[in-house]
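Take a record.
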Amino acid sequence: MKAVRFFGHKDVRVVNDIEKPVPKGDEVLLKIGGAGVCHSDLHIIDEGTVVGTVFTLGHENAGWIEEIGENVEGYKKGDAVLVYGPWGCGHCKPCQQSKENYCDHQSEQAYGGGLGLDGGMADYMLVPSSRLLVPIFDLDPVIAAPLTDAALTPYSAIKRSLPKLMPDEYVVVIGVGGLGHVALQILREISGAAIIACDVTEDKLAFAKELGAAFAINSKDADAAEQILKITGIKKAKVVLDFVGATSTIDLGTKVVSLDGDLTIVGLGGGHYQYSMNGLPFGVSMTNPYWGSRTELMEVVGLARQKKIHIEIEKHKLDDANEVYERMRQGKIKGRAVLIP
């Protein structure tokens, strides 16, 4: 079968000689409908965050069950499903709470398909346990694949702060990319706070207004923080969601977050924050959440089925993987790219 394989630093190849897996036990073989292309892949490809192993890329995956192992219950051939991305041990306390993204044994094992183990940028994908599947019912797997990260990650981050997102408050979203454009829709649907979107291009800012942002600020402006504070007034923004994670965006967040607010850094931009006693307002929680729980992915599917969120996608063939990654490096992907076998 065909697959997009990672062979090492900056070495990604499309190969045609991978043997089709055969599931056993609780394993499930998925016929891939779509595999999302995530900016996190570039950290693997360009920065070598996963070393010493060759594997198939793709951690945002959806498709149809092709074959099941002898111990699988509750699923049958043809069922449309998502693959929950972070694969924990399945036995520790966080895993038992559906939070495999925070598995106690994360540092001891490869962390999931496309993240050290074979992912979904292929004709077929072997999922090691049926517990990692989430039914999508009438959703198209091609459209649904990015829900597993591009929607789950911002949804989980927003839920952490939901009690603070009241109608008399402001929330700042920095970065209207693959995750940020979904975050805007989620905030529009489940929170009452006024949304201030920040990005560096006018087309992204216009897109943000279409998706529910009440205000749009170009974060390249030298006075971006002052523009935000003019909107919020003295109370500032109760929640800041940074989907870039660069030093400049973290700095912007620290200037506009309110007392007892949440500064949530989701993006993996490699930024730094130098803590000082007066660097943040009192009571601020600075967090770096990772992905979300499997039960939260079920909730995301519910939002998508109710047509309350929609991921803007570009469709590409597996053979186009390297071209898509290059366009992503250049910031030319609008929404999410999806590879279709």
